[in-house]
């Protein structure tokens, strides 16, 4: 399991309008492309610098590919990152203010304290 | 030596800009009251006639990331671009350009290191809404030079609460030892109880109104002893999963001083969080 890599995916996609749209429309394809092309990019280094070892496990990959924010919460992805990106994906479908944000919380109602550990 | 003419602590609600500028059907019902409270709060800074703003906030995984995460970081740059694409997208925040006060940044870094804080620094820092929100609320002209100080309240492992208090106490001493005639305001933003990305988010009030009430009393009375007795890294999970931002309020209590009551206190109970506004005048309230 790589909480860091889950967070890195959420972080990088959330910062890029084009990736946000690709993740909304073709999540499975976007996750596969990102893992192959971006996961090992060493941030803040010159282009071409990369690590070699970062991979999702099957559960993580499937959670991202199915927009399963409940599973991401259970896996310990940073909730601020997940929320921010998922608002970008789905708030536009709201029919009333904060509709998506409230339903996002409601789907997590079965979690009680302590929440899954978010330390990476 | 420089003088600290105001110490200000508040929440930083990113929806204020959009709510306060909205018109017609888009204007939420709470916007007018919120705006009135902000205008009164703004006056507490204006009256102090500051020349420089030291701004304490927390990056929200915009500039700072898990590949290279500082606990406390001081910006030292001539200018700071501000706000990010995803803040523009989600909150409607404008892009901004703020001027830096590099001499004070350098002084805080040198004296802070000498005081035992291993401060990180950045010569190219793009700042986010924890610092731009208090600019928008307190100094919308954005005409004063700033020194941004970022804290990690976001990415475990976090510093202990007492460390935030100690840093605040040191910032007070360090700014007052700056060889300058300028008038400095120290402004910091944090959270009361808050949940983001969890089951208790976006309720009609903050997730823990009882914590909010106690927290406001601690801050208003400068009750650092009781606050430090009750607040731990573990206990801060209970009022909401984003409540560790309260440690930035504790830092500002350190700047204001133990036992020093705030000269100005106001709150606003909003959906999903309680807004809170505090001002201290270390040299007495300006006329």
UniProtKB/TrEMBL annotation, chain A:
Highest taxon in the source lineage: Bacteria
Name of the molecule in the record: Uncharacterized protein
UniProtKB/TrEMBL annotation, chain B:
Lineage of the organism: Bacteria, Bacillati, Actinomycetota, Actinomycetes, Micromonosporales
Family annotation (Gene3D superfamilies): LigB-like
Signal peptide, first to last residue: none
Species of the source: Micromonospora vinacea
Name recorded for this polypeptide: Protocatechuate 4,5-dioxygenase beta chain
Enzyme class: oxidoreductase
Domain Extradiol ring-cleavage dioxygenase class III enzyme subunit B residues, every copy: 8-262
GO molecular function, one term: protocatechuate 4,5-dioxygenase activity
EC number of this enzyme: 1.13.11.8
Keyword field: Oxidoreductase
